[in-house]
Specification:
Elements: H1 6-17, H2 27-35, E1 44-48, H3 54-62, E2 65-70, H4 73-82, E3 90-94, H5 100-106, E4 112-118, H6 127-137, E5 138-149, H7 165-172, E6 177-182, E7 188-194
Parallel strand pairs: 1-2, 1-4, 2-3, 4-5
Antiparallel strand pairs: 5-7, 6-7
The structure holds S-adenosylmethionine.
Length: about 200
Amino acid sequence: MTTTPPDRVAGWEAHFAAGRGFRRPDDRELRLLAEHAHPSPGHQALDIGCGLGGYAAALADLGYRTLAVDWAEASVAAVRDRYAGLAPGLTVRRLDFEDACAVAEHLPAGTFDLVTMRLVLAFLTDRKAVGERVRRLLAPGGVWLVTTPLTDRLPERRRNIGMTADDITDLVTPWSHCSAYDLEPDGLHCLALRP
Ligand SMILES: C[S@@+](CC[C@H](N)C(=O)[O-])C[C@H]1O[C@@H](n2cnc3c(N)ncnc32)[C@H](O)[C@@H]1O
């Protein structure tokens, strides 16, 4: 198994250590999540790059057996601490989703009915490989829900947290079905992708 180089994750660990969080999902975003969630008993969700775990907790509340993963130790500790009451419906583990071997070792293929990535994909380096990895993890009929800021709606100094129109085209192309939503005129873009 490969390990994550410490310098890559250090910025995120520092973010958590400073007590900083992330933009929380608003009602409109949570409504959109609920519209794409059709959990039956035993259905499983995977939240990749879970941060402080609010979105993963929403998935567990909707009825999914939810696994939250993040490569930062501080994230995993925070989610364990904040959402202990949701176990075993919500579990969390440390995982670098760009580490193909670790993903193959720890996440069973064809398992997850809903995979979510909120405010994460823009930070990942090989998005094509990430998409292929997600596809392998989806159960039949599964959906990948990606929520991201769009670069051209961000101020210059924050453009690194967004995806460009070309990035979105590259992301969507390999998927058979894509529904796209704008959550606010100048806000987040959400894509529901199906193989
Ligand atoms: C902007 S935060 C979003 C957190 C959460 N999804 C939310 O919406 O509040 C990005 C998260 O992705 C995680 N992350 C970044 N690269 C990752 C990787 N390669 N594998 C797993 N998690 C990663 C970071 O540690 C961080 O928690």
